UniProtKB/TrEMBL annotation:
<dbReference type="InterPro" id="IPR051920">
    <property type="entry name" value="MPT_Adenylyltrnsfr/MoaC-Rel"/>
</dbReference>
<keyword id="KW-0548">Nucleotidyltransferase</keyword>
<dbReference type="InterPro" id="IPR001453">
    <property type="entry name" value="MoaB/Mog_dom"/>
</dbReference>
<keyword id="KW-0501">Molybdenum cofactor biosynthesis</keyword>
<dbReference type="Pfam" id="PF00994">
    <property type="entry name" value="MoCF_biosynth"/>
</dbReference>
<protein>
    <recommendedName>
        <fullName>Molybdopterin adenylyltransferase</fullName>
        <ecNumber>2.7.7.75</ecNumber>
    </recommendedName>
</protein>
<feature type="domain" description="MoaB/Mog">
    <location>
        <begin position="8"/>
        <end position="153"/>
    </location>
</feature>
<comment type="function">
    <text>Catalyzes the adenylation of molybdopterin as part of the biosynthesis of the molybdenum-cofactor.</text>
</comment>
<dbReference type="InterPro" id="IPR008284">
    <property type="entry name" value="MoCF_biosynth_CS"/>
</dbReference>
<dbReference type="GO" id="GO:0061598">
    <property type="term" value="F:molybdopterin adenylyltransferase activity"/>
</dbReference>
<keyword id="KW-0808">Transferase</keyword>
<dbReference type="InterPro" id="IPR036425">
    <property type="entry name" value="MoaB/Mog-like_dom_sf"/>
</dbReference>
<comment type="pathway">
    <text>Cofactor biosynthesis; molybdopterin biosynthesis.</text>
</comment>
Length: 176
């Protein structure tokens, strides 16, 4: 199976990071990835406030520490303190707009306010960074939509081979 994959899970929330409430969103990402992946992987978890410099530094640190994938939750709405997409764009070499387009399209099936979401994705070195919404139910809906493309994206960046439980999620890899 090859090397163990390191995956960053970053919850961006002023209130959760201050201990006002429990971080259910970060746990939702971990649970979803545990359902998807049969390959060996290790979560690198961070819980930080909605502060752009801190978000940028956390993303840089996780990429430098060898994460092939970083999944963020929170900070993607229109509120003044929602700056996760700006932080992501600031640290990425190239943006992957299709992720945000597909996540919004999927979310629109459930809520008309999906158009207010600004989630995006991009590449920093050989790391894919994906911004997800903050609600645990929306996290699963969005990951179900975009994750089939994630293992192949990581293959193209020469990252670890992510093997999935195909009864749960079927990754797309072109026949060679």
């Amino acid at each position: 199976m090859g090397q163990q994959a390191k995956i960053g899970i970053v919850t961006v929330s002023d209130r959760a990071s201050a201990g006002v409430y429990e971080d259910m969103s970060g746990q939702a990402i971990r649970d979803t990835l545990s359902d998807y992946l049969v390959s060996d992987w290790q979560a690198e978890y961070r819980l930080i406030p909605d502060e752009q410099p801190q978000i940028e530094q956390t993303l840089k640190d996780l990429a430098r520490e060898g994460c092939c994938l970083i999944v963020t939750t929170g900070g993607t709405g229109p509120a003044k303190r929602d700056v996760t997409p700006e932080a992501t764009e600031a640290v990425c070499d190239r943006m992957m707009p299709g992720f945000g387009e597909l996540m919004r399209q999927e979310s629109l099936k459930y809520v008309p306010t999906a158009i207010l979401s600004r989630q995006t994705a991009g590449l920093r070195g050989s790391c894919l960074i994906i911004n997800l919404p903050g609600k645990p139910k929306a996290i699963r809906q969005c990951l179900d939509a975009v994750f089939p493309a994630v293992p192949y994206c990581i293959d193209l960046m020469e990252g670890p081979y992510l093997e999935c439980n195909e009864d749960v999620i079927k990754p797309f890899r072109p026949k060679s």
